[in-house]
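Cross-check.
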Amino acid sequence: MQRFPIWATFASGVVRQFYGILPAPLVTPYAYALPAVEAVTGAFLVAGLFQRPVLVVGALFMASLTFGTALRGEHDVLAEQLGYELVYAALLATASWDRFSLDALFARRATAR
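Predicted model, tokenized:
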């Protein structure tokens, strides 16, 4: 959420970081989408809504971040991001055991009818 007030500044910073690595026309829309995708993905995960699709979107976005970090050669950040990828994989693998999310609550109500 801290990135929203300085969205343009953040995006231009990301474009500068990838100058000479990836073309700016590819990086710019990604940099503008990043804070929104993070916020929406996080909100849905905390609420427990649409867990599987949100986890897939989050994992794919995290994979793209990991790819960019690898291109930049930031190995310390890369290791941290791979840890997040493992968390996404574990959450996806155990999503069927979910009992305490809004998705699970709605599923219980639907089967009770």
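The mean pLDDT is 90. The longest helix spans residues 24-47. Passed to J.P. for a second look.
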